[in-house]
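Deliverable D2.4 — example input (structure tokens):
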């Protein structure tokens, strides 16, 4: 197995930092999550998307 950060070979057994090779790589990964460098895409809610369109119609005076 390879460390996801530095790509070094990692022993799985007896490694308290797995899947990382060291505490340093584990903390780098944590920082990446905290700073928003990794993102999990969320599907758009169709109701929210339509609500945004309705509010712009009201502003422009284009009511149905």
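Example output (designed residues):
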């Amino acid at each position: 197995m390879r460390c996801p950060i530095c790509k070094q070979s990692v022993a799985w057994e007896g490694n308290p930092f797995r899947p990382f090779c060291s505490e340093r790589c584990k903390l780098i990964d944590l920082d990446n999550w905290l700073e928003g460098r990794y993102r999990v895409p969320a599907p758009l809610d169709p109701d929210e998307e339509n609500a945004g369109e309705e509010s712009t119609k009201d502003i422009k005076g284009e009511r149905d």
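The longest helix spans residues 46-60.
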